[in-house]
Each structure stands twice: as structure tokens, then as C-alpha cells.
Automatic annotation (TrEMBL):
Organism: Alligator sinensis
Function comment: Stimulates the autophosphorylation and kinase activity of STK38 and STK38L.
Molecular-function GO terms, alphabetical: kinase activity; metal ion binding
Ranges where the record places region Disordered: 233-259
Protein name: MOB kinase activator 2
UniProt subcellular location: Cytoplasm; Nucleus
Residues that bind Zn(2+): C101, C106, H180, H185
Keyword list, A-Z: Cytoplasm, Kinase, Metal-binding, Nucleus, Transferase, Zinc
Organism classification: Eukaryota, Metazoa, Chordata, Craniata, Vertebrata
Coiled-coil region(s): none
Primary location group: cytoplasm
Length: 259
């Protein structure tokens, strides 16, 4: 992922600029109009879907080819290497807007019409703020990728039988973080002029999890509109999201989801 080199070096400088003030069980509940017959407020326009911003990338790599398993490379090794790298880059991308993601500004871990809850080791559902949720994600992933029994780095060390399921879990959570940045902090990302980095990272990540079926498509449906734009226009994705992008988004406007 050499395309992100120099990103961290620019972070401190960029954050000094003036910026605008600016989960997994699903339950559907249709939003009903008020007794007086007023219709629900229309969904807020998504700034990150504006053509002038979606076309911004920092490289023209064919990511579809980049994510493919190289010949003579062990699958688990490839998954481990990429998952670890994505973790570090997504953590870095979030850190650029973390000062704007507070308990007050983001009282829930929300992405568009979906609210995510954290589940602890005992399966207890925990409602938390977005920064708390991201901290849970990053702490738990950090613990896994640095565990030699899970992500072995020494020659001859075998991957655990549960490795693929753990990678899927990690990717699901990392997707939540990326989606939250777009949904709640794209204005800040834009002000920092890091939307090109974000678009490139998102495209690379989505094509990677698609290539190895690491995240259930139902999980990523919430961002299908963005995925349709970024991963089917000159990015080597090999197609769209089965046409579910715009339809799913429009049909979900009057629904509230909890995960």
C-alpha cells in the first residue's frame, strides 16, 4: 500500500488548518408520519456522493488486480498481511478526524440510518458513543493482529483453524469505521483535503473483502451507493453491486436499523 506513504507525515500539518464545525442483529421499524399527517423529513443529501469528490483519488492503480492472491502465496499469509495493513491505514485515517468525533457530536455509532452496538466477550449488547465503539474496535483488532497464535509471523508457525472467521470479524468492524467516517465526518475529511486518501482506501478495502468474501453483502449494503460509484468506474472492480445500490438506499430511507 505504497499509495498511502506520506499520509501520516502530512497529518499534523493538516490538522492545524481551520475546519468547519461540523451493529449484529437487525430490527426494522418503519417510520410513520406524525398524527397531523406530516411526512418524514427527506434524507439529508450525502456530500460524499458528489461527483467532484468521488472522482478524487491519489492513485490510478487497478485495485481489482492488486487484491488478487499472487501465485505461490499462501492464502492465509495474504489475508494476514492485507488485514494488518488495512487495520493500520483505517486507524490512521480515523485519527485525522478523531478530534471531531466526540461523545457529544457522535452520541451513537451511527452510519446513515443504521446504529451499531458493541457486543462484549459475553455477548452483552452495549450502546456506546462512536469514539467508544471505534476504540473497542481498534483495541480488539490490535490485540488480535499482535497475537502470535492468531497472526503468526515466525516460520513454521501454523494459522489457527478459526483464522478466516477472525479475519471476517475484523473486516466487518473496520468497514463500520470507514462507513462512519463517510457518514459523519466527510466534511472534516474534505476540509483536510484527505478525501482522495479516503476514497482510495475505501475502494481498495471493498475490492479486497469482495475478492475473498470476507464480509456479508448485507452488511455493506448501507454504503452501496458509494461502492457503486467508487468501485465500478475505472477501478477495475469488474462490475457493480448487482444493481442494489440505489434501490437499497432509496428503500431504506424510511427505516431505522439497529445492529
Amino acid at each position: 500500500m505504497d499509495w498511502l506513504m506520506g499520509f501520516s507525515n502530512d497529518k499534523e500539518k493538516l490538522l492545524k488548518q481551520d475546519t468547519p464545525d461540523f451493529q449484529l442483529r437487525i430490527m426494522h421499524r418503519k417510520s410513520k408520519g406524525k398524527p397531523n399527517g406530516k411526512k418524514p423529513a427527506p434524507e439529508e443529501k450525502k456530500l460524499y456522493l458528489e461527483p467532484e469528490y468521488t472522482k478524487s483519488r491519489i492513485t490510478d492503480f487497478e485495485f481489482k488486480e492488486l487484491v488478487m492472491l499472487p501465485r505461490e502465496i499462501d492464502l492465509n499469509e495474504w489475508l494476514a498481511s492485507n488485514t494488518t495493513t488495512f487495520f493500520h491505514h483505517i486507524n490512521l485515517q480515523y485519527s485525522t478526524i478523531s478530534e471531531f468525533c466526540t461523545g457529544e457530536s457522535c452520541q451513537t455509532m451511527a452510519v446513515c440510518n443504521t446504529q451499531y452496538y458493541w457486543y462484549d466477550e459475553r455477548g452483552k449488547k452495549i450502546k456506546c458513543t462512536a469514539p467508544q465503539y471505534v476504540d473497542f474496535v481498534m483495541s480488539s483488532v490490535q490485540k488480535l493482529v499482535t497475537d502470535e497464535d492468531v497472526f503468526p509471523t515466525k516460520y513454521g508457525k501454523e494459522f489457527p483453524n478459526s483464522f478466516e472467521s477472525l479475519v471476517k470479524k475484523i473486516c466487518k468492524y473496520l468497514f463500520h469505521v470507514l462507513a462512519h467516517i463517510y457518514s459523519s465526518h466527510f466534511k472534516e475529511t474534505l476540509a483536510l483535503e484527505l478525501h482522495g486518501h479516503l476514497n482510495t482506501l475505501y475502494t481498495h478495502f471493498i475490492l479486497f473483502i469482495r475478492e475473498f468474501n470476507l464480509v456479508d453483502p448485507k452488511e455493506t449494503t448501507i454504503m452501496d451507493d458509494l461502492t457503486e460509484v467508487l468501485c465500478s468506474s475505472g477501478s477495475g472492480s469488474g462490475g457493480s453491486s448487482n444493481g442494489s445500490g440505489n434501490g437499497s438506499s432509496a428503500g431504506a430511507q424510511n427505516h431505522v436499523k439497529e445492529r
